[in-house]
Design a protein that fits this description.
Rossmann fold, 9-stranded mixed β-sheet, 11 helices, 9 strands
Length: 301
């Protein structure tokens, strides 16, 4: 049975490069695929508030070496949210929104794509999902890259991050205000994510559209579940090589904990991108792709 179908006819996207859907137990999962299927597979997992769309510049830069797969996680982009829980043991209950819960969805997506093993890149919140995936099924992840991600070192830092998430919740609610769909709001959001705002306003509009599409319940539950100690514990026991790519000017995931985070992985390395914010795959896609290729193809950084 073919588990894929095109969404391009009934879900028009701007500059999407093609969007398909995998039929999963949780429903349809939208995804993008760039590159020849004869090339080694590379799975890219987006962050909170975003979707697979923002991977496209990097996917195109990587398409000469990899077949790139980028799903929209449930409740993000064009993937519908997980259905509300019917009972406490329901697999779509609150635990489904944890890093491990969403990693289970990604593993099923890999099955649907026929990916027995692949390299994986996670970005920001998606790095937590990627770490969980690698911890749950280490034989299926050859090498792991986590981008613009850092974890807390102690309970005090964890509580501080929880307070910051309260501001994030206000931003989600602000989507209902009249100005939220404006270019001004897109630039306001972008000023937090980019070191230098892109000249093309369409890039900011795409990012805003992804943020506006995010399911509110999904936004709330994924943020709350991301505060678990499980993620740093998982990172500390990964057997595969791990590379952390971090922008020196990241305002969303401050760089101060980057060295600590990379050091948690037994085979972890850290590479900095200068004059770069939270979205290196958009802000500097060619440099980002070069770092990825050096690590995945040559084992260098």
């Amino acid at each position: 049975m073919d588990m894929r179908r095109s969404l391009s006819g009934d879900m028009p996207l701007q500059n999407n490069g093609g969007c398909d859907a995998a039929l999963m137990r949780c429903g349809e999962l939208a995804y993008r695929q760039v590159g020849s299927s004869s090339l080694p597979p590379l799975l890219l997992i987006h962050g909170w508030g975003g979707a697979s769309r923002y991977w496209l510049p990097a996917m195109r830069a990587l398409a000469d070496a990899f077949c790139c797969y980028a799903p929209d996680l449930p409740g993000f982009g064009f993937s519908p949210p997980l259905t509300p829980p019917i009972a406490a043991h329901n697999p779509n209950g609150p635990d489904a929104y944890s890093h491990r819960g969403l990693a289970s969805v990604v593993l099923e997506f890999m099955d649907a794509m026929g990916l027995a093993q692949c390299d994986v890149i996670g970005h920001s919140y998606g790095s937590g999902v990627a770490i969980a995936l690698a911890a749950m099924q280490p034989a299926r992840v050859r090498r792991l890259i986590i981008s613009n991600f850092s974890t807390f070192r102690d309970e005090r830092e964890r509580r501080m991050i929880a307070l910051m998430h309260g501001v994030t919740g206000l931003m989600v609610k602000a989507r209902k205000l009249p100005f939220a769909a404006s270019d001004g709001f897109a630039k306001l959001l972008g000023s937090r994510y980019f070191h230098r705002l892109p000249d093309d306003i369409a890039v900011l509009r795409d990012g805003l559209n992804d943020f506006m599409q995010m399911d509110e319940r999904t936004a709330d539950l994924t943020v709350k579940a991301s505060l678990s100690w499980e993620t740093p514990h998982d990172l500390a026991r990964l057997p595969m090589p791990v590379l952390l790519i971090h922008g020196r000017n990241d305002q969303i995931m401050p760089p101060r904990n980057a060295e600590y985070t990379a050091g948690l992985a037994p085979r972890g390395k850290l590479v900095w991108m200068d004059a770069c914010g939270h979205l290196p795959m958009v802000e500097k896609p060619d440099e980002f792709a070069r770092i990825v290729k050096n690590f995945l193809l040559d084992g260098n950084c």
